[in-house]
Each structure stands twice: as structure tokens, then as C-alpha cells.
Amino acid sequence: MRAMNMKKAISKTQLLLATVVALTLLLTPAAFAAAPGITGPTFNLTARPAYISQPDGSAVYSWGYGCSVAPSGFAPALTGATCPNMQVPGPTLIVTEGQTVVVNLTNNLPNPAGNTSILFPGFQVTATGGVNGLLTREAGRATTNNVVHYTFVASTPGTHAYYSGTQGDLQVEMGLYGAIIVLPASTPAVCDSGVHASNLTAQGHWGETDFRLAHAAYNHPGACYDREYLFQYSEMDPRIHRQAEEQSTRTCTNCMNVATEPYLPAYFMINGRSMPDLMDPNYAQEYPHQPYNGNPHMHPGELTLLRIIGTGRWQHPFHEHGNHVRVLARDGNLILSANDPSSLAGPLLFTTTTTPGVTMDGIYYWTGKGLNWDPYGHNAASGSTLPCTPDANGYNTGAPNAINYFEWCQDHNKPLQTHPFGDVAGGGPATLPDPNIFANGPWFGGSPYLGPDATVRAVGNTGTTPPSGTVANPPDSEAGFAFMWHSHNEREITTNNIFPGGMLMMMLVDSREFVIDESN
Ligand SMILES: [Cu+2]
Fold first, then answer.
1. 494: CA distance to ligand 1 center in Å?
2. Do 22 and 153 share a domain, yes or no?
3. Of 57, 165, 195, 448, whose CA is between 20 and 30 Å from 377?
């Protein structure tokens, strides 16, 4: 009876937060993110088989695009950046609007798989070489026809998808998909002034590097951004992959017969990885064929560009907790008002539900506005109090070098706790509980304050919350606000039916003094 009540009392969400925050604190000593890819404008790709790993320990036979020779470059140039000859998703191709893009594709799939190809939806493609196919020219299996050439002008900026145009139900499922990021040929001057310039000053003050590919997603003043991430959503039915693996050694060409229905996916992936693998760094050696991660970090006030692609066959109702996402564009088409073509008119979305083949660019940010307590609570090193001077929007943006840069000033010094701490007075409504009563003890990431030493400052009536100085919670490492970003289809936050896993990541809001290092 008691046990049952206990179960009811601990909601799934609490469990999620406790478990996942714990994982975050334990596994994420630094922040690894960005939207990494390879630069062209000529890309030499191959399609070939390899095994990708999932957090349940399985190695899933898959097909993917990779580099047949070293690419001309990497952007951003991250530590350990590499382009293996097979990866899922395929290499992110980074080009600039107006460039003529050439993709040479060599077919290195097993003979029974037959032909393969690439579609570049939204672009006017000229295809040569290879053999004729249903949707485009394909790379065959004979040495005389196994290379196909695609040429197109990167006519529209934004995030675009590419994927196999041959037996899509099998080949896209097997992993033959990727992204093209087209950077705008020019960006508005406003993206380098005002609050964007202040954000850059703040980054520089704390020794951070700017890892953006551009300063705006489109040549529009509403498309400026301060940080960016690319997320490709897909799912996998291991039964299909097993059948393809079993037939891959047959001594015949184009003879694979794999049933792609009924479709029963067991893996739900972001950038080819599942939770918690997706929180590991980009190019981590333990995932030689899954180089890209899903590990968003940001500081308060930074406009964060989310580049979103639906791949696979299912829709995924992905929810970015902490704020809504303002959609800028779909499939590289900026959404403008019919009445006023100079104004953006994209929807503000609670869940950015992905649709197979559709891309979205959207802006997300977090500031703490509306919390009704002071989450900054900063104790100035000098011992004097920090000012919060509201700008026209109510934020402390005039002091980019200050620890409380971008604080929502209306809540400045507003007490949360009964007992005082830092600069914030006592007399607030809450008495923080004794950390020892939390089920997971030091694993509960329950500090209501931002900052690496938030755990020291958050003094409850019996100690700190959570206990600082423990192995899980050293006061000088990252202690951001963790927001779960996850699929709202609950089965999709499992890996092979075990929770937690799948399409689940933790977004961390880090106060200014924590340096977000995206270098690997
Ligand atoms: Cu949610």
C-alpha cells in the first residue's frame, strides 16, 4: 500500500527530471554542440554499409552517406572533426547561397542492394553519369556506372534535406539521409548591432568562441541568431535492418527483397543517436559512424536557431521546454506576412512537430522572464550589489560584461527563500527542503539559481540544495537550468521500449560565467 502511494506520488515527469538531470550532471562536464558539417562546394560522397550503435548495446546494420575522399573543409572547425566513409546522418553539406554545388556519389552498397541515388528537394538538379532511375539518375553496381554526378545552384538559403531517391522505403530507413545548410549570401547589418553585438561582447568577455555558421539564417532582420543547432529526427525498425543484413551477402545484384511493412520502429533518434548517447560530444570516438550529437546549451537571451529536419516515416511531436519556437521558414521558404511582406509571419509552436521530408528553421530563447523570483541572485565578487538596469524590453542588456547580463529586471532581488542568500533578501515564500529527503539525494538538480556556484548560494534550512561539493555536483562546474526537450509521443522517449532513451535531450541554460565550449 505504502509502496503504491509512493509510486503515485513520484510522477513520471519528476522521475524523468531526476534521472535525466543526474545524467546531465554526471556525463556533461563541458558543453559540446554547434551545427557541424563539411564545406564544398564540391562534395565527393559514397553510400556504404556499417554498424551504428544504440544505447541498449545493439549494433544495427545500416547504410549511410560518407566522404569518399577528405572534404575541402569543416565548418565550424571543431576538434577531432572527421568525415568517415559512412555516417548516419550523412555529412551536413554547408554551402553559400548562389554557389554551384556538385555532389559526386559513388555506390558502395552491397550488390544485392542495387542502385542508389540522392534527391535534393527544392533545387533544380542536373544529374549525369550512372544509370536512369525513377526519380533521378542513380549510381549502379557495375564499375562502369557506379558514379553519378548532381549539380545545382544553392538558390535558397536555410536548412534543406537530402536523401535517397531509390527505394526510399528501404534506403531512407537504412540511413541514407542528411542535411544541406545554405548560408545567405548577405546578412542584415542589424544582426551585428544592438543586442546581437552585446551578446558577442558577453561571449568574448568570458572567453567563448563564436561557433555560428552565419549571423542570420536568411537575409531578413528577423532571422538574426546568436547560436545554432541542427536536429534530424528519424526512427528505425531493427527487423528491416536485420533482413537487409541477412540478404547483403547474396551473390546477386539488385535482388534484395525486404518487407518494409508492417513498420515497428524500436529506435527513435536525433542525429542518428538516442538518449543518452546524443549528449556525448560531436565526433566522439565511440560513435565512429554517428558523428553528430544533440546537446543544446545557451545563455539567457541568446536567440538560438533550431534547424529541424523530419526524416524517416513518422511525425515526431518534439517539444522544446522552457519557451515556444518561432518558426522562420519551412523547406527554406521564409514565411512572410501576406499583408506586409517585410514582416515574418511564422507560427509560434509549442511542439515543432516534424514531418518526413519537411525542414523548419525556428528561433528559441530563454531569459527567466516571468519566473517571479530572482534566479540570478548574484553575489558580486566585490561584495557590493549588482545593478539591473532595464532596457526598453525590461532586460539588463546594457552591461554585457556583468554576470547578470540579460537578467529580467522586474524580478531582480525578488526573494524566493525564507532565508537570505547572496544579494537577494530573505522573506520569500519558500523553504527549500532538506536535500537528504530527495529520493536520489545529490542527483536531484533542484537549485532554483543559475550559475556554477548556485548550489553553494542556495542555502536551505539544513544545508545546501542540492549538496554541493559532491562528485555529482561540484560547485565550480556546470549548473545550468536543465530543460527536457523530447518527443511528446512517450514511446519515442524509450530505446527498444526501455525508458529513458530515444528522442530525448537536455537543453541547458548556463549563466554567463560558465563557458559554453562547442569545440568538439
Ligand atoms: Cu514536454
1. 14
2. no
3. 195
Between the CA of 504 and the centroid of ligand 1 the distance, in Å, is: 10
329 and 459 share a domain? yes
Q: How many angstroms separate the Cα of 274 from the Cα of each of 33, 89, 170, 223?
A: 15, 13, 21, 30
| pLDDT surpassing 90 at residue 513 | no
- The rounded Å distance from CA 351 to ligand 1 centre is 8
- The predicted model scores a pTM of 0.90
| Residues 142, 234 within the same domain | no
| Residue 491, CA distances (Å) to 92, 123, 317, 495 in order | 28, 35, 12, 9
Please tell me whether residues 164 and 208 are part of one structural domain.
no
Separation of CA 18 and ligand 1 centre (Å):
15
Separation of CA 361 and ligand 1 centre (Å)? 20
CA distance 120 to 164: 9
Looking up cell 544545508 gives 463
* Number of domains the chain is built from: 2
pLDDT tier, 207 (very low <50, low <70, confident <90, very high otherwise): very high
Closest to 57 (Cα-Cα) out of 238, 284, 264: 238
Q: How far is CA 214 from CA 183, 184, 327, 394, in A?
A: 7, 8, 18, 28
Please tell me the distance between residue 485's alpha carbon and the centre of ligand 1 in angstroms: 7
On whether both 172 and 203 belong to a single domain, the answer is no
User: Do 108 and 208 fall into the same domain?
Assistant: no
pLDDT at position 4 is 33
Q: Which are the contacts of 303, defined by CB distance < 8 A and separation ≥ 6?
A: 196, 224, 225, 226, 227, 363, 364, 365
Rounded to the nearest angstrom, the distance between the alpha carbon of 314 and the centre of ligand 1 is 18
Q: Which of the residue ranges 12-16, 236-240, 358-362 would you say has the lowest mean pLDDT? A: 12-16
Residue 47 near residue 107 (C-beta atoms within 8 A): yes
- Looking from the CA of 243 toward its CB, the CA atoms found within 13 Å total 14
Q: Ligand 1 mean position to 197 CA, how many Å?
A: 32
Q: How far is the CA of 349 from the centre of ligand 1 (A)?
A: 12
User: Residue 258 Cα, ligand 1 centroid: separation in angstroms?
Assistant: 36
Tens digits of residue pLDDT in 408-448 = 999 988 877 766 555 666 677 776 665 555 544 444 445 67
Task: For residues 41 and 29, state if they share a domain.
Answer: no
State the Cα–Cα distance between residues 314 and 470, nearest whole angstrom: 42
Helix (H, G, I), strand (E, B) or coil at 348: strand
Count of C-beta atoms within a 10 Å radius of residue 345? 14
What residues have CB less than 8 Å from 370, skipping those under 6 apart? Answer: 408
Do the domain assignments include residue 509? yes
Please give the residue range of the domain that contains residue 370.
12-34+195-218+230-240+268-520
Residue 353 CA to ligand 1 centre (angstroms): 12
